[in-house]
Design brief:
The complex is a heterodimer.
Chain A: H1 2-30, H2 46-59, H3 61-66, H4 68-88, H5 98-127, H6 129-134, H7 137-158, H8 164-175, H9 186-201, H10 209-215, H11 217-220, H12 233-236
Helix pairs in contact in A: 1-9, 4-5, 5-7, 7-9
Chain B: H1 36-39, H2 52-66, H3 68-76, H4 88-93, H5 100-115, H6 117-121, H7 123-126, H8 133-142, H9 151-155, H10 162-175, H11 181-192, H12 201-219, E1 234-237, H13 248-262, E2 266-267, H14 285-302, E3 306-309, H15 313-327, E4 341-342, H16 343-352, E5 368-370, H17 374-379, H18 388-400, H19 431-437, H20 439-452, E6 456-459, H21 462-471, E7 482-484, H22 485-492, H23 499-517
The chains are: A mainly alpha, B mainly alpha.
Chain lengths: ~240, ~525
């Protein structure tokens, strides 16, 4: 019963996550950017643009310019999350590659970083009047959700171990369409349920910002409008009104 | 109108210092609404339509499908707060709706309500809201408190540009019949007369003749300022304020002297007698294109080889970034030069080739700083290298005066503060907003005055110049403390064969004589 329910939940969540993101990306891809609007000074070449985007993704360059507190909490959270996710790959592959074995201890430490970053971001959302003003209930809930995922995961690691071998069997089973029993551990149930919720809301919420960055014209356009004419399909079809009206 | 000095809240020296949050402080700030006469020439309904709500939502849907920026920016904001203290109107007014994210949210909450799953079914959760008269009222107020300066977009981790959101909001309002008088009336004048100020050909010609006489008196030379002259090499497109206002007009004389010294023939066009393009401010691709196409037509009719733009901030953004898109391709012009060029690029290239002589001492009465205009700084470029838009005007100023000092680094170049009057807000009905919005820039200027005894500020934007002339007195500066960059050039340039050339030669002979005597 529990096993069947969670198997279904994760199939649905995965389908929603992948399908939803694909829809978003298709939408962003298909809507044209009719004008050249990079925030200047901007790179003049495509490779320069790639480097600018890489700096945004890896270093959060613009955020660093904006506010050191948001930058430090945001960066710690995101890179903690990245390591934690990488560490979790070991529950989906057999045998575990060396590189995953290598990052395992860092992944465990990263959980603390991730939770600390989230706590810092949430504290700012509550304490700083400007950020409190712009926060909707969903902005708080999103942080609560991520924090609960992190804390429930850490609880299984450091407080009450779950039967991780069985969990791995469950997930590798799902990948080969085989149902293997999921342990009925309350912490695990909470952790997995929240992860499924996160996967489902991801493409339909502000969490999609990671995709948005790559499609942001102010960041992904090269500064070369005089050299290359840029014309959107809908703009090319505009009737020539030409003369003064 | 109340005495404008009442508007300045208190006396804090730091241009970046945060105000107390004052909810609704600027809710009453609204520009005059366009009348049917102002709306119709632009293709907009004359007054608010009875079914405006449905039409506004339809228009929003249309724009979401036409502008990737709008679609991505409305989705991507995570409310991190990075932009909240970056807008000069927020710093100057404390009204939280002037925080860039909050301004975007005025549109985003309606987007969420009608275009997203969560907003349709759980509006309370994500802060989604129906489009109501109150919301439209807020839009009209606060999307006319954004000068589209892009400062927030520098700091946003996703590059969200509130200017794009403001432009979309203004286009939606125009399309349902609630336009802004100032912008729309001016665009109408361009269509009818050829320029923002509505100066007819005769008035332009007599102004130019007057300026030619003035330069003749000063230099003893016949420096020409031609209008509609076929076969000239360069078409100069400059803001019509350059023909009318101070200190703009001194800049125009500077361009003329540079062209003269370069031996390049040039002309203004009465048909395209405007560099400004308010079509950008109202977010209307079609109107922006129609204004731009006048420049193409003028260039073709006059048979010029090059197009050069005078000092105007947003005009240079439209010219540099959009002109090729809107009115290109310009394959009928001389391919050796970029299309278009900025007058500063033109002057700078001559400087590099040692073709200009300056007598810097002519500007010794000025201790100068430079105001980077937002559209030049964050929406365009000059020269070959990113950042040329900062270096080239400074190089020109350093070549033409002895005393140049920059303002604090966090208030210049890509982080420059708007003058407070850009983006279609340079109208008397928004004077309170303009004075308050100028505060960060004025404080940075006060600092550099204290540190270096700076007396004057130069700019390359007609709107900045007009705005500063009005607001500087509120911050303890003379109204003529704002100068054109090419005004400094005009003062210092030594034209071949001019009175100034003879004076300079005598001065140098005398100095050489003294040197020998010593």
């Amino acid at each position: 019963m529990l096993t069947g329910l969670f198997a279904l939940l994760f199939y649905v969540a995965t389908a929603v996550l992948v399908g939803g993101l694909a829809m978003k990306i298709r939408r962003y891809w298909s809507v044209p950017a009719p004008l050249k609007i990079p925030t200047t000074p901007a790179p003049t070449t495509t490779s320069g643009v790639a480097f600018r985007l890489a700096r945004e993704v890896v270093l959060f360059e613009s955020l660093f310019k904006a506010n050191k507190w948001i930058w430090v909490f945001g960066w710690i959270f995101h890179f903690g999350l990245l390591l934690v996710l990488l560490r979790h790959l070991r529950y989906f592959v057999n045998p575990v590659p060396e590189v995953l074995a290598f990052i395992q201890p860092f992944g465990i430490l990263a959980a603390f970083a991730m939770v600390a970053g989230l706590a810092g971001l949430w504290a700012r959302r509550i304490i700083v009047p400007r950020i409190r003003y712009i926060s909707a209930p969903s902005d708080h809930l999103m942080l609560a959700l991520l924090l609960a995922i992190g804390l429930s995961g850490m609880a299984m690691k450091f407080v009450a171990h779950t039967d991780i071998v069985a969990v791995k069997a469950f997930f590798t089973g799902l990948m080969t369409l085989e149902l293997r029993p999921l342990p009925a551990d309350p912490l695990l149930i909470v952790h997995l349920s929240l992860v499924a919720v996160l996967m489902i809301i991801f493409p339909f919420s502000k969490l999609v910002h990671g995709v948005g960055l790559f499609f942001s014209p102010s960041r992904n356009q090269a500064d070369n409008p005089r050299e290359r004419r840029h014309l959107a399909p809908w703009a090319a079809k505009l009737p020539a009104r030409g003369e003064a009206k | 109108m109340a005495d404008m000095s009442d508007y300045i809240i208190d006396d804090r020296p730091d241009p970046l210092e945060m105000p107390e949050i004052a909810c609704g402080a600027m809710a009453k700030s609204k520009p005059f609404v366009a009348k049917p006469d102002h709306q119709q020439p632009l293709g907009f309904p004359g007054e608010l339509l009875p079914d405006w709500k449905e039409r506004a939502i339809d228009k929003m849907g249309e724009l979401l499908g036409k502008y990737r920026s709008l679609q991505v920016y409305l989705d991507s904001c995570v409310k991190c707060g990075a932009c909240t203290d970056k807008c000069h109107y927020f710093l100057g007014t404390g009204d939280p709706n002037n925080m860039p994210v909050a301004r975007q949210d005025l549109l985003r909450k309606v987007y969420r309500r009608y275009f997203t799953f969560s907003g349709k079914y759980m509006p309370w959760l994500v802060g989604a809201q129906d489009l109501t008269e109150e919301v439209l009222d807020d839009w009209y107020s606060y999307f006319h408190q954004c000068s589209q300066c892009r400062r927030c977009s520098v700091f946003c981790p996703y590059g969200i540009d509130t200017a794009e959101v403001s432009m979309a909001a203004r286009e939606i309002m125009d399309s349902v019949g609630k336009g802004q008088k100032y912008c729309n009336e001016i665009i109408g004048k361009v269509f009818k007369v050829g320029n923002n100020l509505g100066l007819p050909k005769g008035a332009i010609r007599s102004t130019l003749e007057g300026l030619e006489e003035e330069i003749k008196e000063e230099t003893g030379l016949d420096v020409r300022m031609p209008l509609d002259e076929k076969g000239a090499e360069v078409l100069l497109v400059t803001p019509s304020a350059d023909l009318f206002a101070e200190p703009h007009i001194q800049g125009l004389m500077g361009y003329a002297k540079v062209f003269h010294e370069a031996g390049v023939t040039w002309t203004l066009s009465s048909y395209a007698s405007e560099a400004a393009n308010f079509g950008m401010f109202i977010g209307s691709y079609e109107n922006m294109r129609d204004v731009s196409l006048r420049i193409r037509k003028a260039a073709l009719d006059l048979g010029v080889k090059r197009i050069v733009f005078g000092e105007c901030g947003h005009a240079w953004r439209v010219a540099y970034s959009f002109l090729n898109t809107l009115a290109g391709p310009f394959d009928f012009l001389d391919p050796r030069y970029p299309v278009p060029q900025h007058i500063c690029e033109f002057t700078y290239d001559l400087m590099k080739d040692n073709k200009l002589v300056f007598d810097k001492s002519k500007n010794d009465q000025y201790r100068l700083t430079f105001h980077d205009s937002c559209n030049v700084a964050r929406g365009s470029r000059m020269g070959d290298m990113p950042g040329g838009q900062f270096e080239i005007p400074r190089a020109i100023l350093r070549a033409s005066c002895n005393h140049f000092f920059d303002m604090a680094p966090e208030t210049i170049k890509e982080q420059t503060f708007c003058c407070g009057g850009g983006g279609g807000l340079l109208t008397d009905d928004l004077m309170e907003l303009r004075v308050k919005g100028a505060q960060p820039r004025m404080r940075a200027l006060q600092q550099v005055r204290e540190d270096h005894g700076v007396t004057h500020m130069a700019a390359i934007c007609a709107i900045c110049k007009a705005q500063f002339t009005k607001v500087m007195p509120k911050y303890g500066f003379e109204m003529d403390s704002i100068l054109s960059v090419h005004q400094m050039v005009a003062n210092a340039i030594v034209l071949t064969g001019s009175t100034q050339a003879r004076e300079l030669a005598e001065k140098m002979n005398a100095a050489a004589g003294n040197g020998r005597a010593a």
